[in-house]
Amino acid sequence: MQLDNLYQEVILDHYKNPQHKKLNATYDAQVHHINPSCGDEITLNVTLDGDLVKDVSWDGMGCSISQASVSILTDLLIGKNLDQAQVVADSFMHLMQSKGTEKGDEELLEDAVALAGVSQYPARIKCALLGWMAFKDASVQALAKQG
Amino acid sequence: MQLDNLYQEVILDHYKNPQHKKLNATYDAQVHHINPSCGDEITLNVTLDGDLVKDVSWDGMGCSISQASVSILTDLLIGKNLDQAQVVADSFMHLMQSKGTEKGDEELLEDAVALAGVSQYPARIKCALLGWMAFKDASVQALAKQG
Amino acid sequence: MTFDARTIAKDFPILSRTIRDGKRLVYLDSGATSQKPNVVIDAESDFYRLHNAAVHRGAHQLAEEATDAYEGARSIVANFLNADIDEVVFTKSATESLNLIAYAMGNAQIGNRFHLNAGDSIVVTEMEHHANLIPWQQLAARTGATLKWFTVTAEGRLDLSNLDSLVDASTKVVALTHQSNVLGTINPLEDITRRAHEVGAVVVLDACQSVPHMPTDVKALDIDFLAFSGHKAVGPTGVGIFWGRADLLAELPPFLTGGSMIENVTMESATWAPAPRKFEAGVPNMAQAVGLGAALTYLTAMGMDNIHQHEMSLTKYLLEGLSVITDLRIIGPKTTDLRGGVVSFTLGDIHPHDLGQYLDSQGIAVRTGHHCAWPLTRKLGVPATTRASVYLYNTTDDLDALISGVQGAQKYFGR
Amino acid sequence: MTFDARTIAKDFPILSRTIRDGKRLVYLDSGATSQKPNVVIDAESDFYRLHNAAVHRGAHQLAEEATDAYEGARSIVANFLNADIDEVVFTKSATESLNLIAYAMGNAQIGNRFHLNAGDSIVVTEMEHHANLIPWQQLAARTGATLKWFTVTAEGRLDLSNLDSLVDASTKVVALTHQSNVLGTINPLEDITRRAHEVGAVVVLDACQSVPHMPTDVKALDIDFLAFSGHKAVGPTGVGIFWGRADLLAELPPFLTGGSMIENVTMESATWAPAPRKFEAGVPNMAQAVGLGAALTYLTAMGMDNIHQHEMSLTKYLLEGLSVITDLRIIGPKTTDLRGGVVSFTLGDIHPHDLGQYLDSQGIAVRTGHHCAWPLTRKLGVPATTRASVYLYNTTDDLDALISGVQGAQKYFGR
Ligand SMILES: Cc1ncc(COP(=O)(O)O)c(C=O)c1O
Ligand SMILES: Cc1ncc(COP(=O)(O)O)c(C=O)c1O
After folding, report:
1. Contact criterion met (CB < 8 Å) for D273 and A121
2. Strand, helix or coil for residue A134
3. How many domains does chain C have?
4. What is the ipTM of this complex?
5. pLDDT tens, B61-73?
């Protein structure tokens, strides 16, 4: 059934065992993002080391798509430098807007390609993007702090 | 043609030769009424002598229906006492709301029965009533002044 | 006529379409918007095809016919509510109606009974839809008045224990919903209207979720203003009703200004026509008003009492059916006592958004989220719920589909 | 495709109905409201029959389809105006759009560029429709700002000789009509927008009478806000457009508050979604927005340039035809130079209301009165006029009928 495109095993796994879902006490920037249409919320902390994404931790509540997406994000982006992270984020954004026509670059996006099915459900795209928007916001703030 | 029911000879005569269309310098009450949907305006003066309608004079601009109606009103009501005037006004109001089903009491309404056709044109009823509303308003004010 | 939802459903063309690979549409989202019967769709089309012209403005035959149709719709609405015809104002939605009264009060000058200032208070409840909350927040901010509210109990009822202290001499308006769009709770109004009137406040009723579902008599309710949306009452989108008591409408300043609502206009200033014209600036939503007239005529023919009873028995069936599902928690009253056919629930760890998506894959349309009553869902500790809402065209088949859909979701996400 | 009004008229079902004892309908009242082609009527009906659901709010298929249809309509409007999609706000009418900007400015706090106070001024013109006059009068009264206006010359043109003194450092907004709904005058905007922007004021264009009749490019016009009504552009009733420059919409406070326009809500306060959502509270007029999309698609297919040329040649024909009638006086420009297809006139001692009634008896629909521009008609010394207005479906046959109708009225009332 088509729904299986949306709810791939990987997603449900991340939903059940979310990665880095525990706010680290120290951070360079903390942001709180909301999805106003469904009430999902996320708090996300970012720690940089120069332009290296040293740590990302988060807490929040939301649907499996939003929770899995941010969980996958932490796995993907921690340890990358900001330029690489940007490339990944752009690729993910592109995938989300593909309306089901693309599968995603598995090399680059790893587990995140499991979210490809979301692009066929317009109302869910913002679920998948919640954590990514929060990361973008937080990393800009963290960078600004370095001066 | 149906239009002839609306524009009877009597009406066009009154439109061309309006009665008492010259504001009397002295009066007990003066009112100014407006028809907001078409911009017709009337100023109307009333002079009472006890409960006798001693004089009604007016000025204004408007369509043949509104002008003829007030002209006919002056002919009808000057010289009547207020009770009689009320009976005439009620009868005229009733005729206007009759949707073409009544001809009007010629005994009572005299020339005003020529306005019976107006009741078939809902948008025109307020034209025909403009002067009558002004008279009602002015006579109440004039009466109040007597104390 | 006996009431038969299966026959009624045939009047609604959308209900015979299919969803996601040929599944039957099970529409349980009438609390968000209702579907439309053919008579309503045709009433709008026929207006355009036969009578369309600007009302109140032309001396020609089309304008006469359009005016008759539009004013005819007003009188249908008035009858439906047991109101006087000049008390009925056409707006674009309940949201506009509620903004209308809030902004109009904000326009009231000193001396006008609706004038508000720093010492005054506005009372709402914790279960309001954003449409009956934010306009009052804004009015309070503009005028310096204080916003207060009745809280909601864990059972999803208004806590009226502090009625007499909350609604006091400072209170100018009490605005509340007749039926919660999240909980289904129907609020008892008698004590509230009595107390409000005792202190000289007006009562504004958000009747979005009640007018479409039960007989409404504004006189018997003893309220002062009422708002509802046509689209939730089998009517067209783009039309709502604002009703107010004639003496109050006479004193209430206008909201939107422009054509057709005036008495006289100069470059410097303007004066107003009497109600309802005073509140209907511009060429109105004529076809939609006519469509709403057809909708209320249709509902009346079906019988508002029948509709209410039908929904009550569906609600009972649904509450019972859901009660046996493990991990399912009803948010709101668990019996049909003082509640309508809006049923919200949570399902263990399955997020409402995921549940809704699964149900959709089965052709079942429900709503998920905070339902535009975010302060309420937060207060109850459930930022989001899944909500099923029934209407005259729903059957127990629809509810069976929902119940097994919910169970299916448990299996699906439990894998 | 060659432009043929006779063929086009067949798309509009109402144009084949008859009036008063079988007379052909000659509809010359499109300035009040236009007629609707089948594609528009069907777009609304199809929305109800197939896709109706609350947009932006459901995770189910109908909600997705409804959202697609609604947002698709927004992008059609954006293309039609050469605007960005997020700059297009659906309202119920131009009247609401103009009230929106006036009220939203009234909501602006100190520090916001739209905030007004006693030293500021608002500039309008003497030829405004009440919808673009009274909201500004009210805003001025609320904020203490001063209302000023351009006057109108005897020829029916704006007197711009005092542009630089009228629009000065105190001016916050210049609001004017693109085309007068009484005179047909098209106002040249270049000097006005240049001067307004020089002093930091925004320009609000009432485009009710221009958008339906000529190509519109909001970027080329260099304006800041624009309003028009769907019902005058072969679209449904109950829908209008408010357009604003993206950077300005970001700063403009909201007007109507309620569901779907929020970012976050607590009992105490709320924050707003970005535009256009910020300005669209509540379940929107979805079917009407979709209908407007179909209308603009239809107009685009006919060609806005073609429509404009067609109307210009009809206007020329009409002005010439009327010019030979004794006692007939055109109110407004007598040539097609910078004027549209709205032609007002007086006819000796025959009151417009009587003339209109006679024309109606011949099947000819025109409008009579002050046309919701009372200060203008008073200024010109003609409290009421008769107004004929043309659109894409009119032909010279219609104008011939009008011209001989006017002559017939002279005979009829001259008896
Ligand atoms: C120039 C002008 N402005 C504003 C309006 C108001 O439009 P609506 O009544 O559709 O809101 C109209 C039409 O009535 C108009 O012609
Ligand atoms: C209780 C309640 N109030 C107000 C509204 C707002 O109605 P609308 O969005 O039609 O303006 C709704 C529905 O959305 C509602 O359920």
Report:
1. no
2. helix
3. 2
4. 0.96
5. 999 999 999 999 9
